Fold:
Amino acid sequence: MTRYSAEFHFELRACRWAEREWPPDGDGDRTVLVARQLGTKRRRWDTLVLECDLEGLRARSKFGPKRLDGDLLHVVRNAPDEWTYYRDALPHPGYPWRYVREAIHRADDRGVLETRRDGNRIQIRRRWPYPDWLERIVAVENKPDLDASAARSLASQLEYDVAMALADEVWVATRKTGERVEPVLFEDLPVEAGVLALEPDSLIAEVEWYPRSLPVDDPGTRILEQPAGGERDGSAARFEYVDPAEKTERRLAIAERAYERGWRSFVETMRPDCRHFQLRSHAGNQLVPHCDATGCRQTATECSGSCPEFEPEPPAWRTRGWPIEGGPGKRCRRLLEDRRSDRRPGL
Structure:
């Protein structure tokens, strides 16, 4: 198995490539945010590339590095310029007002909304208008080795993406083989999905198939169940329509989560507090996880408390410089967080 057969390692390289080189055709210098392992309850993508308005992204930084969930977005996006009773200022959310009041208090605690009391009434006023910072969402599925079974599973996932049209574009990124025609092009994938062949060491990518833009402003079709297939299967697919307004809210909620997390958050699912955990520089000035005990790049599944090589940092490491610096594990987190913040102008 090559070192990029594991999807996790290939995924980190694909994220770094997107951060440096997006868009694939080199048409213009776009401001992008890249995140990984994000999506909805029914669908999670390997990589998300958010194409952003630079000035809007700077204005978004006023609301802090943490995401605004759906309840907070409902409040800050509709907050008035002047003091107004919150029920008169905000559209009905479709759920009890008590949850809106909770969101108002949370927004006030975070300093992104002003509140005051007028008798028993809570009045609100915006601090800043919420900017229109998101332009497009591009979803990428990473498959370094696309065998037949993986292709069948991927095809149904991409069909869901195309029908739902929650992202503006969908892509498949696979490892470049060097063959005259990349094998992924022979797979039965939706023609609306683009195909990108990436050489992970050099971070050189070629577009093998350009995607079609999906109608994100139109109603989406959520596929609930597909026929199992076969000659005797005459069953119909089950689906439901999704209102464009709901799609807009979900897109913004996904973008907020991507803004908070980025793609360098892999240490949140690994054990940087292990004495064997390291971050090593790779081509393209990228920091990747490395296990000193096994001498290889570990995956998030391998790097856990159940690993037989796991050893907590010695107390002397953890307490040196506490609480400002801490041990190596804490410094790994801080280093990745600093690089993540560099991608969010204004922070």
